[in-house]
Design brief:
The complex is a heterodimer of chains A (219) and B (460).
Chain A (H helix, E strand, L loop, with lengths): L2 H13 L3 H13 L4 H21 L5 H24 L8 E7 L7 H12 L2 E5 L6 H10 L4 E5 L7 H12 L7 E5 L5 H7 L3 E3 L2 H16 L1
Parallel strand pairs in A: 1-2, 1-3, 3-4, 4-5
Helix pairs in contact in A: 1-2, 1-3, 1-4, 2-4, 3-4, 4-5, 5-9, 6-7
Chain B lengths: L3 H10 L5 H19 L14 H18 L1 E3 L4 E3 L3 H9 L4 E4 L6 E4 L11 E3 L8 H12 L6 E2 L6 E2 L2 E2 L5 H20 L17 H7 L11 E6 L7 H12 L3 E6 L2 E2 L6 H17 L5 E4 L2 E2 L8 H17 L4 E3 L2 E2 L6 H16 L3 E3 L2 E2 L10 H14 L4 H15 L12 H4 L10 H16 L9
Parallel strand pairs in B: 5-6, 5-16, 9-10, 10-12, 11-13, 12-14, 14-16, 15-17
Antiparallel strand pairs in B: 1-2, 3-4, 7-8
Classes of the chains: A alpha/beta (219), B alpha/beta (460).
Chain lengths: 219, 460
C-alpha cells in the first residue's frame, strides 16, 4: 500500500466505524514509517471531519459519533506511542473541562457537545452530571484547562452556572478560563447576565464559538 | 400485569452494567438490529402515513426492542428486564380510558383509533412555560376560559420574593405550593373549579416538592394528573419510582412522560418511532400510568415539528392505539414564537398528525423562540380549533394538508421568528385582549388553514 492508500484507509476506517481496520492500518502506517502525525491529521482526522459534517446534516447521529470517536481512539492507541517516540506532539485545539451543573442530571446534550469537541481536536475532561461547583475548579486547575463548559437543562439549575463563575471570580481565576454555557434553559441574556464568555445554542455552535474564542485569545 | 413491587425488585436484581455499556453495547446495536429486522423505513413523502401494517410492525418492533434492552436504573447501575409476554400483558391491560376532573369538568380521556372522527381530548397550556407571578393568574384563567379545554398545563412560577428558586431548595417547595394554589384559584375564577390540571407540579423538579404540593390543602386532587418522566433514553431512576409509589398510593392519575431525542441514542426517525412506542409501554408497566405524555424532540433544533418527527409522532400513535389502547396527549415543541404564523403552521401540522392517528391534543409550546410570559390564551384557542378540525378528516386527507403546511415553515426551522408576550397582547390587570392586530392575525390564519383543507371553526 502506498502512503496515500494508507491515509485513505484510515479515513475510511473512521467513516465505517471499523476499529479493526483502523488498528491494522495504523500498524501498517508505522511499519511503512509513515509520519504518525500525518497518519492522524491526513487520515483519521479527515474521516472525523466528514463525520462532523454528516452529523450537522442529520445524516448520522449520536451513536455514529460515538462509534467514530471510538474507532479514532483505537487507531490512536497504536499511533500515539510512535508519535512520542519521534519526539512529536499532536497539536490539540485546547483543553476543556465539561459537566452538567449541580442539581441537574441531564446528560445527552452534554455528551454530544463533548463528542463534537473531541472530534474537532479538543482534549475534553467529562466531569459527568450533577457536578459540585468546586469540582469544576479543581479539575480546571489540575488539567490546566483552557475552557470550562457548563450545561444546565432546567431553569432552576441555571444558578449552578452562575455559582461556578462566582467562585472563579472569588478566587481571582475568572480571566484564566473561557467559560462556555449551554443547555435547554440557557438563553443569551442569561449568559450575559452571569458574565459567561460564550453561549452556545447547540453542540456545533459550541465547537465553532469556542474555536473562534480560543483563536481570538491567542491573537 | 407485573406488580409494582416486582418492578422495583428488578431495579435491584437485574444485571449490573455501566450506563455507557448499556447504550453502546446493548441499546444502540439492538435498536439497529430491530430496525433492520422489521425493515422500518422513514418515508419523507408521507410525514403522516396511513399504512396500518406498518403501524402494527412498529408496535411489534417496539415490544421486541423493549424485551431485548429493558430500561436502565442509574441508582443501582442495573438493567431492568421484561419478557415479551410481560410487556404484551401490560399492553393488553393498559387503561384505555382515564377519568379526570371534578364536578361539571369531570371527563374521560380516551385512546382513540386512527381515522376515528370523535373529538380528541383538548389539553391546553403547552409545556412548562416560565411566567411572572404578576400575570400568572390571568394567564391560567385565560386558559381555563377556553370552553372546550378538558384539562390544563399550568406555567411555572419559580420566583419567590424576588428571587428564583434553586433546584431542590426550600424555596422550590414554597414556590411549587404557590404555583398550585394560584392555578386552582385561577380555575375557580373562570368558573371551573373542577377543571383538571395535568402538570400540577410544574415548578417541581423532584419528588419532595411534588409531594409537598400534592397535599390536599393546596388544591390538587387525585383526579388531576401527575407527571412521572423517564430521562432520555429509557432511564428509570428512583426519583421517578418514588413518585409512582406515592401517586399510586393516593389513587392519582399518573402521566407517564417521555422525550425521546432525535439525533441522540435513538438516531433518526426509525429509531425514534420505535422508542416512542417503547416509552408508552414502559409508562404502562413501570410507571403505572393512566395516560402518556409524548414529547419527542430534535436535539439540535429543539422542536418536534420537523418532517421526520411528524412521521414519528403520527406512526407511534397509530402503532399504540391500534395495539395497546393507552390514552396519549402529545406535546409539540415549536420553533416559532407565540403569536407568529410560523407557530400556527407548525402547530397545525403536528395536531393534524396526532389527532388523525388516535392521539389527543396538547397545545403547542414555543420552544426555540421561547420567552418568559409567552402564554397567549388565544393561541391555545386556535390549537383547540385546529385539533377539532383534524378530527374530521382521515390520515390520507391529512397527509396532503401536512405537506402544504411543511412547505410554509420547514425551510426556516433553523431560524424561526420570535414571538409576542402576554403583556404585548393582553391587559395585565383585566386579562382582556388588547392587541387587535394579534386577534386579526388569528382570523387570517383560520382562513388560511380553511383554504388548505382544515375546516377550522371559530370558537364562540
Amino acid at each position: 500500500m502506498t502512503e496515500g492508500e494508507i491515509l485513505e484507509k484510515l479515513k475510511e476506517a473512521v467513516l465505517n466505524f471499523d476499529e479493526e481496520l483502523a488498528e491494522q492500518t495504523a500498524r501498517g502506517a508505522i511499519k511503512k514509517d509513515i509520519d504518525p502525525l500525518k497518519a492522524v491529521e491526513q487520515g483519521l482526522v479527515k474521516g472525523l471531519d466528514i463525520i462532523g459534517e454528516k452529523y450537522e446534516n442529520d445524516i448520522i447521529f449520536l451513536p455514529e459519533l460515538m462509534m467514530a470517536a471510538k474507532t479514532f481512539q483505537s487507531a490512536m492507541k497504536i499511533l500515539e506511542p510512535n508519535i512520542l517516540e519521534k519526539g512529536q506532539e499532536r497539536v490539540k485545539k485546547g483543553i476543556v473541562v465539561f459537566g452538567t451543573v449541580k442539581g441537574d442530571i441531564h446528560k445527552i446534550g452534554k455528551d454530544i457537545v463533548i463528542l463534537l469537541l473531541q472530534i474537532a481536536g479538543y482534549e475534553v475532561h467529562d466531569l459527568g452530571e450533577d457536578v459540585d461547583l468546586f469540582s469544576f475548579i479543581e479539575n480546571a486547575k489540575k488539567v490546566n484547562t483552557d475552557a470550562i463548559g457548563l450545561s444546565a437543562l432546567l431553569t432552576s439549575t441555571l444558578s449552578g452556572q452562575k455559582d461556578v463563575i462566582d467562585v472563579l471570580l472569588q478566587n481571582g481565576l475568572r480571566d484564566k478560563y473561557i467559560v462556555m454555557v449551554g443547555g435547554g434553559a440557557v438563553t443569551p441574556e442569561w449568559a450575559e447576565t452571569i458574565g459567561a464568555d460564550l453561549y452556545a445554542e447547540n453542540a456545533q455552535i459550541a465547537v465553532r464559538k469556542l474555536t473562534e474564542t480560543m483563536e481570538n485569545k491567542k491573537k | 400485569m407485573l406488580s409494582f413491587y416486582e418492578v422495583i425488585d428488578r431495579t435491584l436484581t437485574g444485571p449490573l452494567i455501566s450506563d455507557q455499556d448499556y447504550y453502546l453495547k446493548i441499546y444502540v446495536p439492538e435498536l439497529n438490529n430491530i430496525i433492520q429486522k422489521y425493515k422500518i423505513k422513514y418515508n419523507p413523502d408521507t410525514p403522516l402515513p396511513s399504512d396500518n401494517e406498518l403501524a402494527d410492525t412498529v408496535f411489534e418492533a417496539a415490544v421486541d426492542f423493549f424485551s431485548r434492552v429493558g430500561a436502565y436504573c442509574p441508582d443501582t447501575s442495573r438493567r431492568l428486564q421484561f419478557t415479551k409476554e410481560e410487556i404484551l400483558q401490560a399492553a393488553s391491560e393498559a387503561p384505555s380510558e382515564s377519568v379526570f376532573g371534578e364536578g361539571l369538568d369531570r371527563k374521560i380521556m380516551r385512546s382513540r383509533k386512527p381515522d376515528e372522527h370523535t373529538e380528541p381530548w383538548y389539553h391546553c397550556g403547552g409545556g412548562i412555560y416560565t411566567t411572572s407571578e404578576s400575570i400568572f393568574m390571568n394567564q391560567v384563567e385565560g386558559l381555563a376560559n377556553i370552553k372546550k379545554a378538558n384539562s390544563l398545563s399550568i406555567p411555572s412560577s419559580i420566583n419567590l420574593k424576588g428571587k428564583d428558586a434553586r433546584v431542590r431548595s426550600p424555596q422550590e417547595i414554597l414556590s411549587t405550593i404557590k404555583t398550585v394554589t394560584m392555578a386552582r384559584e385561577a380555575c375557580r375564577r373562570a368558573g371551573r373549579p373542577g377543571l383538571p390540571i395535568l402538570n400540577g407540579i410544574s415548578t417541581a423538579t423532584g419528588p419532595i416538592s411534588m409531594f409537598a404540593a400534592s397535599h390536599p390543602n393546596f388544591g390538587l386532587r387525585p383526579s388531576d394528573g401527575f407527571l412521572v418522566d423517564s430521562l432520555a433514553e429509557l432511564i428509570v431512576d428512583f426519583e421517578a419510582l418514588d413518585k409512582v409509589a406515592f401517586y399510586t398510593s393516593i389513587g392519582a392519575n399518573i402521566g407517564s412522560t417521555s422525550t425521546p431525542l432525535f439525533g441522540g441514542y435513538n438516531g433518526g426517525a426509525e429509531g425514534n418511532v420505535i422508542v416512542t412506542v417503547v416509552y408508552n409501554l414502559l409508562g404502562i408497566l413501570v410507571f403505572r400510568g393512566t395516560y402518556h405524555y409524548n414529547a419527542p424532540l430534535h436535539t439540535k433544533l429543539k422542536v418536534s415539528s420537523t418532517r421526520p418527527l411528524l412521521w414519528v409522532i403520527a406512526l407511534a400513535n397509530q402503532a399504540l392505539h391500534r395495539n395497546a389502547p393507552y390514552p396519549t396527549v402529545n406535546l409539540p415543541y415549536l420553533g416559532g414564537g407565540a403569536g407568529t404564523n410560523f407557530y400556527y403552521y407548525e402547530m397545525a401540522a403536528y395536531h393534524t398528525c396526532v389527532v388523525t392517528s388516535g392521539g389527543n391534543m396538547l397545545s403547542g409550546h414555543p420552544s426555540t423562540a421561547v420567552a418568559p410570559d409567552s402564554i397567549l390564551p388565544l393561541d391555545h384557542v386556535l390549537n383547540v380549533e385546529v385539533a377539532e378540525a383534524a378530527s374530521k378528516i382521515t390520515r390520507k386527507e391529512a397527509n396532503l394538508i401536512v405537506l402544504k403546511l411543511l412547505d410554509k415553515y420547514e425551510k426556516q426551522l433553523k431560524n424561526p421568528p420570535e414571538g409576542l408576550t402576554y403583556q404585548e397582547c393582553y391587559d395585565v390587570v383585566t386579562g382582556k385582549l388588547t392587541n387587535a392586530g394579534y386577534a386579526r392575525s388569528i382570523d387570517r390564519i383560520r382562513e388560511e388553514l380553511r383554504n388548505i383543507g382544515l375546516s377550522v371553526v371559530k370558537s364562540t
